[in-house]
Amino acid sequence: MIAEVIVDVLSSEVDKVFDYKIPSSCLNLTPGYRVLVPFGNRKIEGYVMSLKQNTDCPEEKLKSIISILDDKPLIIPEMIELIKFMKEKLYLRIIDGIRLIVPSQVRNKVNFKVERNILLKDDKYKDYLAKLSKRNKNIPLMCHFLKEVGKCKYNILVKKFGSANVSQLLKDGIVIEEKTRVNRLEHTDKISQSINLTKIQKNAVEDILNSKDKPIVLFGVTGSGKTEVYMHVIEKVLNQGKGALMLVPEISLTPQMVRLFNNRFGKDVAVLHSALSIGEKHDEWLRIFNDEAKIVVGARSGIFAPIKNIGVIIIDEEHDGSYISESNPRFFTHDIARFRARYNHCPLVLGSATPSIETFYKTQTKEYNLTEMPTRVNEKPMPKIEIVDMCNEFKNGNNTILSTTLLDKIDREIKNKNQIILFLNRRGFSSYLMCRECSYIPKCTECDANLVYHKDEGVLKCHFCGKKFKVLTKCPNCGSDSIKLGATGTQQIVELISKHFENVEIFRLDNDSIKNKNSYNEILNNFGKTKPAILVGTQMVTKGHDFPNVSLVGIIDADISLFNYSYKANETTFQLITQVSGRAGRSDITGEVVLQTYVPRNPVYLTSANYDYNKFYEKEINLRETTKFPPFAKIVRILLTSEDDNLAKETTHKLIINLKDFRIKYKEKFFFLEAMKSPVNKIKNKHRYQIVLRFANEVEDEVLNEIYTLLDKMKNNKLSIFVEINPSSLS
Ligand code: ADP
Ligand code: ZN
Ligand code: ZN
């Protein structure tokens, strides 16, 4: 027999299977096993993708597998199919697929955490003590202690009685050591019962369980009780002996969410997200792999969890941008989820209060099913959104970024001892610095990006690579010391607010205030405990949180996302406004929202202020249809990056010459073709070029195939090529 093996080398030239002979020592080999193979003059790891009878490889060149590395295949059969799907449809390299499916912690064999316990062997210790020198007091004390407690952790015993004494008892055979594997992440036992669903919720559960042939969109307003619906569905599939996969955006995977699931499902839950330590990820992955946990609660990468026999896949807040992986390997979580739901013939739930336009469109064309929950469980109305025209503020002599309306309301709510959330999607103190004399703007040396001023750290920071630079006091270009600040960021809001309201506690939540993996929760916990208090932050403050005392939400500059360079700008803005507004008035106090903008008549604001998703959708889908943007067309960006500027430029040039033929071939089905330096020319010293194409849906497969074939010919180790379909950002 012959095995087709993919070798674990990160190079696009070796990203294909190689044939190896299966020696008699490896006869139980099946696809999915990790093996050691000779490659060139090295021995490296590889994965068996398939088996076959014959090979075209000449006998004298054919090498043998050296050994099998694990006692079971690390890749389950479903995942082998998934890897092929990703290679063919998503242009991912096989080895990237494998690295997503078998994470590094597992490949690199992180050790299990072992707990050492000491216990008395039997009652012989009494004779032993009788013969012992009376001078040693600790040994008898230790024996009596162990008799009393049964067993004790090795470390604690050493601390209490000294390591020499513990070793002596071990050596003399009076005590024995017991080693047990412990899980690094603690999972509590099941403690809460499920609650009774409302009629609307019951309907949704029913609809979901009946939707095995198509994905189903759960369109439920914030507070409609979607989480409870998910948990009921999971309960049902668990009772059928199946597993469940529940994904949430990275950022809302707070301990509250994990606790909720732990309380309901106990040790059946495993958690996977990027804030776990390497050891924790390793343990959680293996608990799933070994069928010890049947429910996975995870962020984006959780979609690759090795869970078998899946009964439901849930993507909560399905519109969230974090489901798109924008760094290598690039993928869209929904694509992987659809594959897995098809493979397992199970429901795929896409839940949201503001489904993405493309997702909702599919419910209209019946490609997806739809179930709706239009009211909140507690029947409280959504908080009122007031639009404030910042042009008027300016005309009336207020040239700050905070309107008098917002300031008055903050003042009132502080007096009422309530909590306030202020949202501004720009971190740092100011977006850039600029010389007033010569317009010089400091930039990162590694990236083509303006540096952002961070006043609290006293540095200029690059938001693409994180590199820090000294703050300018003098312009290096003309020597002038007149330096101007760019647009306001979260740090400056905190400074402004604390000048207006001297004695109120202000918390800041953004990428910079998160110093370690606990800070996110610490900041939120402390805010939750303080009244009155103000929380200022970026997108992080918009998602998932349930603070009952928040009575006011201020959206400081809604236009930032509206004027973003993307065809999704309108929908992202609508989603953001709905989400952050949903943080106010969640309990007895009535909530209120102030939305500041320079374009108060924009339909996105008018519809979102009325929570009118359907009207927004109507307008937006018409716009997309007339302008030929997704879902009525496909946008493809081919991004080429390399440290070698010439190589990237020349390859782009070659590609564009080839792609020009598409125009002739596809005629009116091909709308647009453009090649340029990417808007951000350089990141981490890699030069970036991009080609953007737009074409009709019906030629998608054909066009993509041709693109992939073209790209295959241009492979080069010094160049990375990414293909993104309907990218959310073109920077
Ligand atoms: P969503 O995810 O749709 O925003 P949640 O699932 O967070 O809504 O539910 C909002 C609140 O309503 C939560 O506090 C939840 O515990 C509560 N809730 C949900 N369903 C019910 C129910 N059937 N009966 C009582 N309370 C419920
Ligand atoms: Zn200058
Ligand atoms: Zn940089």
Overall description:
With 731 residues, the protein is α/β, with parallel strands linked by helices. It has five domains: 2-107, PriA, 3(prime) DNA-binding domain (GIY-YIG endonuclease); 113-182, no CATH class; 199-373, 3-Layer(aba) Sandwich (Rossmann fold); 384-426 and 487-623, Rossmann fold; 633-725, 2-Layer Sandwich (Alpha-Beta Plaits), CATH 3.30.70.600. It is 34% helix and 24% strand. It has a seven-stranded parallel sheet with strand order 12-13-11-14-17-10-18, sandwiched between helices. A six-stranded mixed sheet has the order 5-2-1-4-3-6. Strands 19-29-28-20-27-26 form a six-stranded parallel sheet, with helices on both faces. β15 and β16 form a beta hairpin. α19 runs parallel beside α20. The longest helix has 22 residues, at 645-666. It is globular and about 95 Å long. The protein binds adenosine-5'-diphosphate and zinc ion (2 copies). The site of one zinc ion has 8 residues, from loops.
